[in-house]
Amino acid sequence: MKNKFYDRLYVFYSGVLFVYILNLFLGFDWLAYIIGLSAVAMIAVSFPKASNLFKILGSAFIVSGLAMFFSAGLDVSRIPLFLTSNMPLLAFLTLLPWINSVVHVGKYDQQIKGMMKENADNLGSLYYRSLGTTYILMTFLNLSAVNLSQDVLMKSMKNVNKALRDNFISKTTVRAFSLALIWSPMEIMVAITVDATGISYLVYLPWLLAISLITLTIDALIGRQRFKNIPIEPADTSNGPPVSAGKILVQIFKLFIALILFLISVLTVSHLFGLNFILAVTLVILPFSSLWAIFIKRWHMFKVYGFEVWKARTNHMQNFIILFISLAFFTNSLNETAALGYVQRPFMLFNDQPAVILILIFLTYLLMAMIGVHPIGTIAILLEVLTPLFDVFNPAGIGLVLIVGALATASSGTYGVTVTMTSMNTGQNPYRITLRNLPFTLLFGTIGILVAMLLI
Length: 456
Fold this sequence. Notes:
Blueprint: H1 2-7, H2 9-26, H3 29-46, H4 52-71, H5 87-105, H6 108-112, H7 114-117, H8 123-141, H9 143-156, H10 162-181, H11 188-197, H12 201-227, H13 245-273, H14 277-295, H15 299-315, H16 318-334, H17 339-348, H18 354-370, H19 375-386, H20 395-408, H21 417-426, H22 430-455
């Protein structure tokens, strides 16, 4: 009976989130309160199935939030209203699997991964090829591309020494994840920063692309040089014959056309209805994915496969439910106290030294990642601290480092999703992955800071 309940959690989660989005347009106070009470229930049913790390984080946010809430002398009846401010982020994550599904049923991923299956005579050649392939797939598939790329590389390198193979895979795939997502409109850290700073996504896009491509190029050149003298046997072709380069380029071109159309749709909806970026993306994902599936004549497969993926992902959102709802309570309570002033003080001491501010932002991400705090938790606190500085410095420059810092540390955060996933897929110690990618994280962050200084 208990398993059947958790198998149908997607109904409860999506129902609450749908009503929340609906009430953004209706504006009923009584309904907002019911949604807040539902958020309490969401935490209650999610806690038993959440991982230990998120249980600890959620508990810390709730306990510290309660301490600040009561110290501010607030009425306990207001607690439910403090829990819902991150609901748009949960709705965004809930709908994200639909756009991943249309990429999968269109078989774009299967053809593009052929770039890694072409024979390479040394690991240096395979390094930049696998880095570039994973980068492209990551833009559209997010975490799904990590498993896909690592599976292909494991098969392609099955005759390579395990230690060397682990080193190679933990660099190419994890780094590509960070590099691809800093400019993706479907990356939650990008959406949060766009809304928080009030700077258009189109302003950020060229700068984020520049940071991403500069770092990608540097890492590809270093990797090619590092591994070029190590020969490799022909790649495993058991998954079928190689796909021609022409077909691969056509698929990549189609994906980028789809991405451009998606961005146009998001910006149009945002402008016409006066919606913030996160909400506009959330509302566009499902209809856009559906029209895309119809256009490529994969509608039936899309609705069947997409529903199963969406249901499975939504049923297992416990970690994000715990994180976002507890974080909303923490930040809303923090805003009601004088404690925020103490947290802001180190940053305000350097309000005439923008370089120091940007370095502090990056180091805060790095430190918090090392102790297991999710970048979303870090950015929520940083935004509360940095908002007064938006009137002092160009918020676009601060926003760049908020995005780059979050994604750069994703490549070396020991308890992060990508590092943990790579550890499980390859059977290696996550701390070893962290140490291998730490120099890359520092390089990535430094480039981000230098580019941001151009805007400050």
